[in-house]
Every structure is written in structure tokens, then in C-alpha cells.
């Protein structure tokens, strides 16, 4: 960044342009030394997939970088005529859409040339192109957890635990009745319809659809299945199965095809 001029922070009271009237793109950085980390399964998705999910509606450029590459140089090479660009790293899977929205609102309403994030940044493209950064700030009001970076097995395990709780809390908010939430495991690609009750020790993975009024009783492992409405499942292993509505499965059944 030596070719840029950084001046003392100066924030105006007015806000132009704001996020609604600005064209914004995103750059996701892939560091060569983290290739294996990008393949890690995090509750049914990879870290890059989760980062991209947080950037809905934005044009995304994915860029391979070396550890010591200058951020400014990367931005210069990967922008066109947009007003702002947000730069994130592919190993920050906890980033959420609402966090991105808050960060962009802050940078655009303050008309910042450079907004530092905990792990990433937002740039005004015009300032990058003319090599002059005047209005700078740091979005330190954001949730720091969202920018947590994975780089080894221990950090991946920490992220899985956080994501697990986020998913379970989401389903509680959306009306799923848990008897023992903390003993359950639900991946991102699972869809659960209305009035579902889930008892203890249920593992639900893959592209699974749980129909209306289903009861998942204790101790099930369910992967890539469709469970028809008004059914119940107890202490069973289901994989690639389509269970018809009003079925009673278990205990101790292993099914990998449609229940007759």
C-alpha cells in the first residue's frame, strides 16, 4: 500500500452515495496455502460457499492470491466501474448477510475511501484508481465472530460448533419443536416444514426434506431423504430414502429406498 496516500480520518455528516444508490461488487480471496481448508465440510457446506452465500445480489470475483500480495494491487486488477468493492477471504465461513449489509451501509453512508473490516476491507473504487485514500475508518462495531478465520482442524471444529448452534436457533425461531436441541445435529441443506417435532439425538444431513407434522423421535440418522407429512421415525437409519406420508418407521430400521 505504499503507493497510496492515507490522511487523517475525516467523516462528513451527510451520506452520499448510500448503499441503495451505489453499484457494489465483491472480491473473495483464496490463499494458496489454504487449499485443503477450503474443502472442509462445515455443516454440509464449504467455507467458500458460506462466504458467497453472505454476498447475495453482488457480483463476485474469486481471486487466487499469495499470502503477501498487497490488497490494493489485488483490488486494482479486479474492479471495473462499480462504486464500491468489498473484499473478503474464502476462509471466513461465519460471515453473515446482515453483517455484510451493515458494513456496506456504514462505508457508503460515510462515503469512505477505505473501510477496514476485522478480516477484509471495503474500498471506494474511484479512490483506488487514482491512488489516493483520504476518508478512512474501521467498522469495529461489527460482530468480530463473523470474521473468524479457519486455518487448521481446531479452528474448523470451533466453526462447526458455532454453525450448529446457529442452524438450530434458526429452526427454533421458525417453529420447530425440539425436546433436546443441544443433542441434535442439522446441516444447512435440510428443509423442515411446519409443525415438526424433533426429539433427542437426531442427526439430519444432506438434502433432506422433513414434511409437515412429522415427529422424529429419539436416535435417528437421516441423510438425503424425504420424510412425508404426518410420519414418525424412531431409532432408525435412513439414507437416500423417500418415506411416504403417514408412515411409522422404527425402531431399529435401516432403509435406503422408498418405504412400501
Question: Would you mind describing this structure in some detail?
Answer:
The chain is of the alpha/beta class. It is built from five helices and 20 strands. The protein has helices at residues 47-53, 71-77, 97-109, 125-129, 153-173; strands at residues 24-31, 59-65, 84-89, 114-117, 120-124, 136-138, 177-178, 185-186, 191-192, 197-198, 202-205, 209-210, 215-216, 220-223, 226-227, 232-233, 237-239, 242-243, 248-249, 254-255. It has a six-stranded mixed beta sheet with strand order 2-1-3-5-4-6. It has a five-stranded parallel beta sheet with strand order 7-10-13-16-19, with no helix packed on it. The longest helix is centred in the middle third of the chain and has 21 residues, at 153-173. The chain is elongated.
Topology, element by element:
Blueprint: E1 24-31, H1 47-53, E2 59-65, H2 71-77, E3 84-89, H3 97-109, E4 114-117, E5 120-124, H4 125-129, E6 136-138, H5 153-173, E7 177-178, E8 185-186, E9 191-192, E10 197-198, E11 202-205, E12 209-210, E13 215-216, E14 220-223, E15 226-227, E16 232-233, E17 237-239, E18 242-243, E19 248-249, E20 254-255
Parallel strand pairs: 1-2, 1-3, 4-6, 7-10, 8-11, 9-12, 10-13, 11-14, 12-15, 13-16, 14-17, 15-18, 16-19, 17-20
Antiparallel strand pairs: 3-5, 4-5
